[in-house]
Design brief:
It contains five helices and nine strands, in the order αββααβαββββαββ. The chain is of the alpha/beta class and 180 residues long. It has one domain: Rossmann fold. Bound molecules: adenosine monophosphate.
Length: 180
């Protein structure tokens, strides 16, 4: 990594806040609201997210509810792509397909509009953070079920110890700005 890029990433890292025991005891919540609040880090984060995918002919950025929406729409605009939300059950108004995945306790379901894109479209999946990788993996299944071609993953943060990237194909490029 060149010096300037390193300095930018260090600045972004300083603007991620750790909130202990949120939303429940034992969780170290990585809060990106300071990144959004400061106009300079808002711009730098958006640029850093878009850069690796500028020449990849992305048709759509698929953002995961809810913090994947915050930079996801910016990212789509920067790439001149459309934006598609993946949401929790019951939030999307038109016909959907859904998939479930296991959480530490219980399970989580996510949904996408079944007419969100056309077969063969090139999709970039984005979220603020990858932890176990369960949500990104399940989002991939939804996109592929609709005939989409996942060509990249974009995360601001990875929680390295949880090895979530191992859940995703080695053949698909992943861009992670900050490993914690
Ligand atoms: P996972 O499916 O385990 O990779 O979890 C990723 C999703 O959970 C993302 O949508 C994150 O926003 C959220 N998430 C999980 N752990 C954290 C954390 N420690 N801090 C902030 N968000 C988290």
């Amino acid at each position: 990594m060149d010096g300037v890029k390193q300095q930018i990433i260090a600045l972004l890292k300083e603007n991620i806040r750790n909130i202990p025991d949120f939303p429940k005891p034992g969780i170290q919540f990585k809060d990106i609201t300071p990144l959004l609040q400061n106009p300079d880090t808002l711009e730098l984060t958006s640029q850093a997210l878009a850069r690796p995918f500028r020449h990849m002919d992305i048709d759509y950025v698929v953002g995961l509810e809810s913090r994947g929406f915050l930079f996801g729409t910016n990212l789509a605009q920067d790439l001149h792509a459309g934006f598609i939300p993946i949401r929790k059950p019951g939030k999307l108004p038109a016909d959907t397909i859904s998939a479930t995945y296991a959480l530490e306790y219980g399970e989580e379901a996510i949904e996408i509009h079944e007419d969100a894109f056309s077969r063969g479209d090139r999709i970039l999946i984005h979220d603020d953070l990858i932890a176990t990788g369960g949500s990104a993996k399940t989002a991939t299944q939804l996109v592929e079920e609709l005939g989409g071609h996942v060509v990249g993953y974009s995360f601001i943060i990875e929680l390295e110890a949880l090895q979530g990237s191992d859940q995703l194909s080695d053949d698909i490029p992943k861009d992670i700005l900050i490993s914690l």
